[in-house]
Each structure stands twice: as structure tokens, then as C-alpha cells.
Design goal:
Helix 6 packs parallel to helix 7. It is built from ten helices and twelve strands. With 325 residues, it is an alpha/beta fold. It starts with a helix and ends with a strand. It has one domain: P-loop containing nucleotide triphosphate hydrolases (Rossmann fold, 3-Layer(aba) Sandwich). It is 27% helix and 20% strand. A six-stranded mixed beta sheet has the order 6-7-8-3-9-10, sandwiched between helices.
């Protein structure tokens, strides 16, 4: 946490409320709702996941309880593309409002399969995802969308929709089979664009935006859905340094306003800059999530990526430098 302000700017690092109610736009517009169970049976057991083990099939720890209605809980989750061959298993993690959890791991380690499972694109191969105390998959589409939204790494529509229209699509779960966007939906889309600082792009064709602008519009689409939690697959991987900073600053600010962020990345610097907790995807499992300073070490990164790392301080902030050649 002490490195956050050095990397992304002290102005973006306001103290996080311990129990924020929703995602606030820049004018304080509440894009979210209070947690509801909608008649689903809510689990009330108090066992937490603080004892999970990492490594091969190990569990990441979130220190939460299954009775925490405001949190997203993963319990012994298994992910993959072939039912008998999960790429990850035994994943246990709790993400709460205001958390910023970074997942680091090599290509092919299972990060994308994990995020696709959260998003519902892939069926879980085992375990469960709980929205508060109810299974996420059992919720109706509108309620499911209000819990979790996925922000893809790439999105290339064939039609040049306006940025505002792309964001408006995040409200589609509310419309029903024959419905369409209401004035309130359009207003929410505008507020979401404003919340990430790109309201001026509303009428621009999405296909003409820069990579950084596209990522911010996709984040706005997730906010427009009213999602409490955002799952992002390497959102800064194809961006230049300036646009990386723009996207990361926006995510840090959203987390400070109460969003729960779960982000996959290859960059230790991104985790140091943004994360409240870091977990390593390795050996078919996810390590216990803990503070960046506890998880990120030269030895851990060398084990993860197979190349030596050196740590040093620059302007008072720790950085990790890989020995590439």
C-alpha cells in the first residue's frame, strides 16, 4: 500500500471506505445497488478462507466469510476448457468492496480461463462462485450483472457503434426480451462515461478510439451495468506507458470509491502500483492472496516467469527488473 501513491499519483489515493455501497461516478451518481438475496438461500456459516494453501491446486486466501453478503466468494473453484483437465483447481478467494486484487502468472497459466469462468463464458469445472451467499449462476441475468462485469482485453466490433452505445449495451440485462433502453439507461451510460473521465468521447465511433480510450469505454460499460465487481484481463497489456497510467489511475480511483477489482497482469509494477493484495497463478493453482510486499519477491517472480529478477528502489518506490538477456 505504501507504494501506491508513488506510482499512480497521490491525488488518486484517497482512503478507502471500509464498506462502500456502490460505484460512484464523478458527480456522485450511484451506479450500484445495495446487496440483495432476492429470495435465494443465503449461507451463514462463519468459516473463512484464511487457511487456504497455494501452489499445486492450492487455494488463494481472502480472509472472508461465506456469510458476508457484500463480497464475492470463490470456493474451491476449478477452471478450464476440458472437464477432466482443469488448468486451475482449488481456488478459494474472497473479494470485497474496495479490494484491488492482482493476479500474476505466465502465459498459459490459467488466468484467462479463470476470468472467463467468473464472467460466465466458461462453466466452472468444480467448486462455486458465491455472490454474497447465493451461487452467482443461480441469479437472474439482471441481478448477476449487478454483481460482476468482465472487461475483456480486446473488443473489436464490426460496426462503428458510438462509445455511448457501447456503454449502453452494459444495461441490456435490464431490458428483457422485447425491451429497449430507457431514459434512465441512457443517463446511466452517460454517468458511467463521466465516471471514467471520457464523457467527451460519447459520440465518437468506438472503432476510431485509441487503445486506452477503448479500455476506459469498456470499463464504463461495466459500471453502467451497476456491477459491484470488475474482472479485467490484462487491461493495459497492449497500451503505451501513458495509456497504461490512464487506465490504472482510473481503476485505483474506482476501487477507492467502493468497486471490487480483480485484474490479471504480467507486470509486477502494476501490482505494486495498484493492488491491495496479490496472488500468483502457478502450478495449477492460485497462491494465497496477500499484500504486494509479502508476495512479490525476486525469488517468487523468478519461479513464476523463469528468468532472474532484481529488486531496487527508484524515487523511494520498489521496482523489479527482469534479466531479459
Amino acid at each position: 500500500m505504501e507504494n501506491r501513491c508513488t506510482h499512480v499519483g497521490a491525488g488518486d489515493c484517497a482512503p478507502r471506505p471500509p464498506a462502500a455501497r456502490g460505484l460512484l461516478g464523478s458527480r456522485g451518481f450511484l451506479l450500484n445497488h445495495e446487496p440483495r438475496n432476492n429470495g435465494h438461500k443465503v449461507r451463514t456459516n462463519s468459516a473463512d478462507d484464511s487457511g487456504g494453501s497455494g501452489g499445486n491446486g492450492g487455494a488463494g486466501t481472502g480472509g472472508g466469510t461465506a456469510g458476508d453478503l457484500g463480497a464475492l466468494h470463490l470456493r474451491s473453484l476449478a477452471c478450464g476448457y476440458v472437464r477432466r483437465q482443469p488448468v486451475l483447481s482449488g481456488v478459494t478467494l474472497t473479494v470485497r468492496a474496495g479490494d484491488f486484487v492482482c493476479l500474476l502468472g505466465p502465459n498459459g497459466g490459467g488466468k484467462s480461463a479463470f476470468l472467463k469462468t467468473l464472467a460466465g463464458t466458461l462453466e466452472p469445472l468444480g467448486g462455486e462462485i458465491l455472490a454474497g451467499g447465493a451461487p452467482l449462476r443461480s441469479l437472474p441475468p439482471r441481478e448477476r450483472a449487478s454483481w460482476l462485469a468482465a472487461v475483456p482485453q480486446n473488443f473489436n466490433p464490426s460496426f462503428p457503434f458510438r462509445a455511448h452505445d457501447i456503454v449502453l449495451m452494459g444495461r441490456a440485462a435490464r431490458w428483457g426480451l422485447w425491451g429497449g433502453p430507457s431514459a434512465a439507461d441512457r443517463a446511466a451510460a452517460g454517468e458511467a462515461l463521466d465516471a471514467v473521465g471520457v464523457a467527451a468521447l460519447a459520440d465518437r465511433p468506438f472503432t476510431e478510439l485509441s487503445g486506452g480510450e477503448r479500455q476506459l469505454v469498456l470499463i464504463a460499460r461495466a459500471l453502467a451495468a451497476g456491477a459491484r465487481f470488475l474482472a479485467l484481463d490484462e487491461p493495459a497489456s497492449a497500451l503505451d506507458i501513458g495509456n497504461q497510467s490512464l487506465v490504472l489511475r482510473t481503476l485505483v480511483r474506482l476501487a477507492a470509491g467502493g468497486a471490487g477489482i480483480l485484474m490479471a497482469t504480467h507486470q509486477p509494477a502494476h501490482a505494486l502500483a495498484c493492488a491491495t493484495r496479490v496472488a500468483l497463478v502457478t502450478g495449477g493453482g492460485v497462491s494465497p492472496a496477500a499484500a504486494p510486499a509479502e508476495v512479490l519477491t525476486p525469488a517468487a517472480l523468478e519461479h513464476l516467469y523463469g528468468v532472474p529478477f532484481h529488486d531496487c528502489e527508484v524515487a523511494g518506490a520498489k521496482i523489479f527488473v527482469p534479466q531479459l538477456v
